[in-house]
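Hi V.,

Quick status before I head out on leave. The structure for the redesign project is tokenized and pasted below; the design run finished overnight.
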């Protein structure tokens, strides 16, 4: 098995985040730093992350929904000592966030030790729709501007795919996108001349933030996890 996959299975980070950690030189095999995420391992090796030996987790995986407050970073490992979203959950499992929300954004983020689910929910070809409620400046927001966002606009890293956009109150937009370009929602709003004042993610696929309080945490039921998995597979059915 590839080293990055092994780390994901041990609950260190998603497969892609594990690749970065390996390249950063934070993983060793039998005492030697390894920087190749594709290195083949069979589990008989002594594999350590930040000098701590991995104990592959057996048994049940868990998924938590968290209402991320502003000012908290959505990473499991922060080198600047900032408050992390993983600090909000007490669990025996080694949890990491699925995808990102900007530090100043709030709303729904998932934490899990299920590498397979995390991979499905964040892989570009599986990307489940995510809905954001944003407050923007420079009112009024014209119907023409909303149409531009719905149809897709050109950002510096390419054109955005069509989006669902509605204005629920003057200056409050609900935007659903299927992609995860960096700071995408903020850049889309900026592109139509309405910079974002605040941004909250209110849904990931079928899962809604609902009335979970800011800073609140809720463990998902098996049925909710299955619905998320189904949503990802519906976007991109597994081959075969
Ligand atoms: N889009 C953004 O611009 N920021 C986020 O945090 C999420 C989506």
């Amino acid at each position: 098995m590839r080293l990055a996959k092994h780390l994901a299975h041990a609950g260190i980070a998603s497969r892609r985040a594990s690749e970065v950690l390996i390249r950063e030189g934070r993983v060793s095999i039998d005492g030697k730093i390894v920087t190749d995420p594709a290195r083949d391992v069979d589990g008989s090796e002594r594999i350590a992350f930040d000098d701590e030996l991995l104990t592959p987790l057996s048994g049940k995986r868990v998924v938590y929904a968290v209402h991320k407050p502003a000012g908290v970073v959505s990473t499991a490992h922060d080198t600047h000592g900032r408050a992390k979203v993983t600090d909000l959950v007490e669990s025996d499992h080694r949890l990491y966030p699925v995808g990102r929300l900007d530090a100043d954004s709030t709303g729904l983020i998932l934490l899990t030790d299920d590498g397979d689910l995390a991979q499905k929910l964040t892989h570009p070809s599986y990307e489940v729709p995510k809905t954001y409620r944003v407050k923007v400046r420079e009112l009024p927001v014209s119907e023409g501007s909303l149409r531009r966002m719905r149809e897709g606009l050109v950002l510096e890293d390419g054109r955005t795919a069509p989006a669902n956009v509605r204005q629920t109150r003057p200056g409050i937009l609900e935007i659903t996108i299927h992609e995860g370009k960096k700071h995408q929602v903020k850049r889309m709003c900026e592109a139509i001349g309405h910079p974002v004042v605040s941004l909250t993610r209110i849904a990931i696929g079928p899962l809604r933030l609902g009335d979970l309080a800011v800073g609140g945490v809720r463990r998902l039921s098996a049925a909710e996890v299955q619905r998320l998995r189904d949503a990802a597979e519906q976007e991109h059915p597994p081959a075969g």
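Above is the designed sequence. The chain has three domains: 3-53, 63-124+207-235, 129-204.

G. will cover questions while I'm gone.

Best,
W.
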